[in-house]
Amino acid sequence: MKEEYKMKNYIKLSILALSLAGMTSCDMDAPSISSLDESSVFATYSLAEAEIMSIHVSFGETNSYRGRFLPYYGINSDIEWIVTPTLEKRLEDKYALSNYDTPASNGQMNTDNNAYAKFYEGIERANLAIKGLREYGNIENDPNMAQLLGEALTLRAVIYNDLIKAWGDVPARFEPNTSENLYLPRTNRDIIYKQLLADLLEAEDYCYWPNENAITRSTERVSKAFVKGLRARIALYAGGYGLRGDGYRRSKDSELAPSLMYQIAKQECLDIINQGCNTLGEFKDNFTKLCQDDVTAGGESLWEIPFSEGRGRVLYTYGVRHQVEDQYTYQPRGGVNGPLPTLFYDYDVDDIRRDITCVPYRWGTKEDGVPTTVNSNGVNFNVYQVPQVMSNPTAMYFGKLRYEWMKRFVTSTNDDGINWQYMRLADVYLMAAEAINELDGPSAAWQYMKPVLDRALPAAKVSALQSKYTASKTAFFDGIVDQRAFEFAGEMLRKADLVRWGNIDEKMAEAKSKLQDLGSNPRKGDYADLPEKVYVRLYEKDMEIPAGTLMFDTPVDGETLVIYGLNHGDTDDAGKNLKDAGFESKGWFLSNNEPRITNDIIDGLYVVQPSTHCLWPIWTTFVENSNNMLNNDGTYGQLSD
Length: 641
What we know:
Layout: H1 2-16, E1 20-24, E2 29-33, H2 38-41, H3 45-60, H4 65-72, E3 80-82, H5 93-96, H6 115-136, H7 143-167, H8 189-206, H9 224-238, E4 241-244, E5 247-250, H10 258-275, H11 283-291, E6 301-305, H12 314-318, E7 337-339, H13 341-346, H14 352-357, E8 358-359, E9 361-363, E10 370-376, E11 379-385, E12 388-390, E13 397-398, E14 420-424, H15 425-440, H16 442-454, H17 459-469, H18 473-488, H19 494-501, H20 504-519, E15 533-538, E16 561-564, H21 572-576, E17 584-587, E18 590-591, E19 594-595, H22 599-603, H23 620-624, H24 633-636
Antiparallel strand pairs: 1-2, 3-7, 4-5, 6-14, 8-13, 9-12, 10-11, 15-16, 15-17, 18-19
Helix pairs in contact: 1-3, 3-6, 3-7, 6-7, 7-8, 8-9, 9-10, 9-15, 10-15, 15-16, 15-18, 16-17, 16-18
């Protein structure tokens, strides 16, 4: 299903690529149609569709979303980090990208083919498509061509929104490149935000709802539900806080006033919910579908960045760590980024999201397993049959995306071909709840938080949270802050949320304080009731599972760990009593009687005040080749009103 769709379109792209010529400027790689007549391309659906698909190529190129933006933007936050930051390594390129002290010369990014350039490449492809479809697409009479125009407008908005999140004020390019506009200065982001909100309002009229047409039967294609969801998200960003030339503040533009932006977010989210084209389903099911290449529209997923099998480092970055070619993957990768260990312990013990989101083990080494041969799609692979082995608190992993949930082997060196889920329905519900709380109060907002909590917690605990959160508008906002952490950890929404809420300094300082409490010997504060060690054994078929133990997926004989000692209230005395049942103790918080969560690690989470360094600078290579139009003077070159 997914593979057939991708193959069809990437074949088109490989043919169409012959018609694209490139020129390089200060802030983009800019393809332009040359060998095919523009009127022929955009008057023919199959050729025009291929132009829309070419925008996706810019997402998947080596140093674009694939290998630079998705791995690094959003790490570190108060719930996520690159595994594992340290103050000692703060100047190393990958850590400097995430610790709020990024130099413009960063070696991962300071090249002419990195994410900043590829974003503008995608924007130029979108600009060409938008211009061509408006002129030759007959969109007034051909709804499928109108759908393509809506997709182009939406994909351009996706890229611009991410440009602003990462770089703040950036050059605004809403027309194809010419010799007259080759070099542009930064544009106040408010101008860009207003353009994006208008573009998406237009795109809503063009795009089909999920499954309304064959085009939108796939989550890899833009639907009206995603257009509306993206417009809601951008409205919340536009009305929120951001780092600007004269400080960290909201916009002064009256057209972007918070009340107006909340109204847009409310209406767009309610339109999606009331239309009923998408359903929440079970929390885990959303992620197993993602790992199994199921792109059927109508479930929780609203839109995904489509990666072919040889593209995309999603599991490489956000999957559970596999240390060797094992029974689930021919790629020893995963676990580059992970949850802060405090996040695991901050979940309610009955919250089903915890054990799916946070994983305390990795897969074993050659020494832990035995050689074997497995067959995948008719091909034999020589691998090692390995068990799960305990990791440690500083190297826990995100579990929403797992090689072991896939239906195919990964044979690329670094890429796994799993899509990046850009937006899902739970986000729509929680954006609606947030906006309605601000406009109408917590009682009206509760009904939109409740469906997200109903699938995560027992009814009695949902009821208790209702009483807590609806006590006041402030209490409900605090609930939004907490529940968005528990719901979206590892999905790279958190940093942008903290920035727009204006509480990034507070929450990041709180994260360091909590890490200090968890890392202390003995543990302090909310973590004082945790045992020092964990107690583990491998699952065996039909074994009696002791009360209070955990398994993090459906158990498999001889490879799945049964674990005691990770819940609040567990004790070392009870753990020791499991020795007769075959359990062994493992050091967890201490190694050689020294804390694993060290001050060096804690201080590496961020090294300067986050609100004043929450943007990346424009990289030196683009500044130096901008004809003096770009700079990083002052606050990363940001503009004041």
